[in-house]
Write a structure and sequence with these properties.
Layout (H helix, E strand, L loop, with lengths): L1 H9 L6 E2 L4 E11 L6 E15 L6 E9 L4 H6 L3 E9 L4 E10 L3 E9 L4 E6 L25 E5 L11 H9 L8 E7 L4 E16 L2 E14 L10 E6 L6 E8 L2 E7 L9
Antiparallel strand pairs: 1-3, 2-3, 2-15, 3-4, 4-5, 5-6, 6-7, 7-8, 8-9, 10-11, 11-12, 12-13, 13-14, 14-15
Length: about 280
C-alpha cells in the first residue's frame, strides 16, 4: 500500500456529466534501479485530464482523471502489463472531495467507486460485486462514470470518519497548483485513497531552472511527505514535484527515490500516442 501510494503520487448533488477537459497533460514514467540493472527504462505512459463538471453552481465542481498504461513498452507488457484509471470529483469552493474512482487491471481487476456522504461523515464504497448489495443505492449522479450495462453494488463503509476538507491525491495536486508559491511556504492536507487516511505536508523548497521537453523553464520544486492515520512513521518516501513558475503551475516532473530504485515521471507530449 505504501509503495503504491508513493508511485502514484509520482506520477454533487445535481451533476449530469463531465464537460470537455480544460487541460490534458501527458507524461512518461521511468525507472532506474535494481530491476533494470542500473539502466533507465520507460515503464508507463500517463494522461491527466482536468476540468469543470457540467453543472450550474458557478464552476465549483471540478474533475480530474488520470490514466496509466504500459501498452507502449514491450518489456513491461511482457512481464507485468497494467492499466490504471483514477478519477476524482471535488468542490473547489468548499475544498471537499465528493467522489473518487480506482481502477487497476494487472493479472486481475480491482475496481471501486467511493461516494463521500458529508452529512453523515462516511465514505460509501461500491464495487461490481458488493458484499452488502442493496444496503445503499449507487448514486444516480455518478452513473455516467459507468459503461453501458455496468452495475455497481454497495460494498462497505470506509473505516474512518470523514474529516473536514478531506481530498484525494488528484484533488490535492490540483489544489496545490492553485496556491501562491514562495520559498519554504507550507501546505497541509488530509487525503484518502478510499480506505486509508493520510496527512500530507507540502513544502516549497526552491525555485529551479529545469529542462522540460528540451526547453529550460523556471519551476518551483516542492516536497510531499505523508503519515498514515494511526500508523507511526512515514507513509512513503518523500515525493518531489516540479511545477512551472507561472499562473498555471503545471506539474512537469515527479521523482521519488526508493530502496529498489528511482521512479521519475516527466512531461512528454510524445506519450499522447498511447491514448489515441
Amino acid at each position: 500500500m505504501r509503495k503504491r501510494a508513493e508511485i502514484l503520487l509520482l506520477l454533487f448533488f445535481s451533476l449530469a456529466s463531465f464537460s470537455a477537459p480544460a487541460e490534458t497533460l501527458y507524461y512518461e514514467a521511468s525507472y532506474q534501479g535494481l530491476f533494470s540493472a542500473g539502466e533507465t527504462i520507460s515503464i508507463a505512459a500517463i494522461s491527466l485530464d482536468s476540468g469543470p463538471a457540467e453543472q450550474s453552481d458557478g464552476g465549483a465542481l471540478f474533475q480530474s482523471r488520470m490514466q496509466v498504461t504500459s501498452r507502449p513498452y514491450a518489456f513491461v507488457e511482457q512481464h507485468y502489463p497494467f492499466r490504471v484509471r483514477y478519477r476524482s470529483l471535488w468542490n473547489r469552493r468548499s475544498g471537499k472531495l465528493l467522489a473518487m474512482e480506482n481502477y487497476e487491471k494487472t493479472r486481475k481487476v480491482k475496481h471501486q467507486i467511493i461516494w463521500v456522504d458529508w452529512e453523515k461523515k462516511r465514505m460509501q464504497r461500491f464495487r461490481p460485486k458488493g458484499k452488502n448489495a442493496g444496503q445503499q443505492l449507487f448514486p444516480v449522479s455518478l452513473r455516467y462514470w459507468l459503461t453501458p450495462g455496468e452495475r455497481f453494488q454497495f460494498h462497505k463503509y470506509g473505516r474512518h470518519r470523514v474529516p473536514d476538507g478531506m481530498l484525494d491525491w488528484l484533488s490535492m495536486l490540483q489544489d496545490t497548483r492553485s496556491r501562491d508559491f514562495r520559498h519554504e511556504k507550507r501546505f497541509h492536507y488530509t487525503v484518502t485513497d478510499g480506505k486509508h487516511l493520510y496527512h500530507y505536508r507540502v513544502r516549497v523548497k526552491k525555485r529551479q531552472l529545469l529542462k522540460v521537453e528540451g526547453t529550460k523553464r523556471w519551476t518551483w520544486k516542492l516536497r510531499f511527505d505523508a503519515t498514515e492515520e494511526g500508523v507511526p512513521g512515514p507513509a512513503h518516501r518523500p515525493v518531489l514535484v516540479w511545477m512551472t513558475d507561472d499562473g498555471k503551475h503545471t506539474p512537469v516532473q515527479f521523482e521519488s527515490h526508493h530502496p529498489l530504485g528511482r521512479f521519475s515521471i516527466r512531461l512528454s507530449s510524445a506519450a499522447a500516442s498511447a491514448f489515441q
